[in-house]
Design goal:
This protein is mainly α. A 4-stranded mixed β-sheet has the order 3-2-1-4, with helices on both faces. It has 2 domains: 208 residues, no CATH class; 116 residues, 3-Layer(aba) Sandwich (name from scop).
């Protein structure tokens, strides 16, 4: 009951981190039916391609062995001679058998890795003594999931058997007609009929594999669902405590402000609102092709701090409310002023950089 109550609380989809942790433990949504069905399909394909050659070589090997039996009987140490014949036959037959079996294993591996990808997960192969507990094992067998798996396995066997028998039943007239045919024709027809039955079985296995893959993915998603508390705790562990994050942001803002204040003494002029905005501009007359750059800006208390630092460093502070608001809104620290503000800023700079006008300046400057 406790497990059911706990499971009912897990209403949230698994986060990427949760799925990654499950993958590291070897818990993935993989259908073994896909592996089996793809291996069977590869086996049939290999048999169609290599079957005639395998059959011809098999007959040749048997013929050669039988032709040498009389000579083996006349030899002393017949047993050793016969073993030598069988070894030679095996080495002739082995490459063909490998050519038939190798595609099965290769396609089976591809069928498995195509579902989950290639990755080494050491946690998945760690020894877990708890898995050897027979009581837990019996509980799994008789649990609802164990009953479902057993029922599905039986259902799969029945489904594939029905498909194979149906394919044979459709060919029942041809099977009856085999009794009146030559042996070579019987063998060829039998091979064709069995091939059709095998293809029906593989088609049924592939259909079951698709259904099983969908079920495995659904079950994997369900098993890894999380409660709202688990999601919240994970976000907290991943992204950090909100209060700590707020303190970090405040520290970052303070550091950025300190760096900005260090650039104010190098500014050419500070344009103010006069109380709400302050923007420090730097212009290098030696580089007329480069527009003035905003080296500091701020509102309210920060604006007052900029003006104070500028006054202490002897940087002219001029009041121009519209220009100050435009500069604060349009230009980021470190960027050049936009073209639409060239004329207004040029007037300010001309006023600041012209010594005669600076001496005549009486209004609009705040020290």
């Amino acid at each position: 009951m406790a497990d059911q109550a706990e499971q009912s609380d897990k209403t949230e989809e698994a986060t990427p981190r949760k799925l990654e942790e499950a993958r590291e433990k070897g818990q993935v949504a993989m259908s073994s039916e896909i592996v089996v069905a793809s291996a069977l399909l590869a086996a049939i394909g290999a048999f169609y391609m290599a079957g005639p050659l395998l059959w011809a070589e098999g007959k040749s090997v048997v013929r050669d062995v039988l032709s040498q039996v009389p000579a083996a009987a006349a030899e002393q140490g017949t047993k050793l001679y016969f073993v030598g014949l069988m070894e030679a036959a095996t080495w002739r037959f082995l490459p063909l058998v490998l050519a038939f079996i190798a595609p099965m294993y290769l396609v089976a591996l591809l069928g498995g890795y195509a579902q989950i990808g290639v990755r080494v997960t050491p946690k998945a192969v760690n020894m877990d003594i708890g898995k050897l507990n027979p009581i837990k094992g019996m509980k799994k067998v008789f649990s609802m999931r164990g009953v479902v798996r057993t029922s599905m396995a039986i259902g799969k066997i029945v489904f594939i058997s029905v498909a194979v028998l149906s394919a044979l039943w459709v060919q029942r007239d041809g099977i009856t007609a085999l009794t009146a045919m030559d042996l070579s024709v019987v063998l060829a027809r039998t091979f064709l009929m069995l091939s059709k039955a095998a293809m029906a079985g593989v088609a049924a296995a592939l259909a079951l594999a698709v259904v099983d893959l969908a079920y495995q993915r659904y079950q994997h998603s369900k098993d890894n669902r999380m409660s709202k508390k688990e999601v919240k705790d994970e976000n907290k562990n991943t992204e950090g405590d909100p209060q700590l994050k707020a303190r970090i942001r405040a520290t970052q803002r303070e550091m950025a402000s300190n760096r900005m204040m260090q650039d104010v003494p190098d500014a050419t002029v500070v344009v103010t609102n006069p109380t709400h905005f302050a923007v420090a501009l730097k212009y290098d007359p030696a580089d007329p092709h480069r527009a003035p750059v905003v080296v500091a800006k701020g509102m309210d208390l920060v604006a007052q701090a900029i003006k104070r630092v500028a006054g202490e460093a002897g940087v002219p502070v001029l009041e121009s409310p519209p220009l100050a608001r435009s500069l604060h809104r349009l230009v980021e620290i470190g960027d050049e002023i936009p073209e639409e503000l060239f004329e207004a800023v040029a007037k300010i700079l001309a006023f600041v950089l012209n010594p005669e006008q600076s001496r005549q300046q009486t209004a609009g400057a705040v020290s």
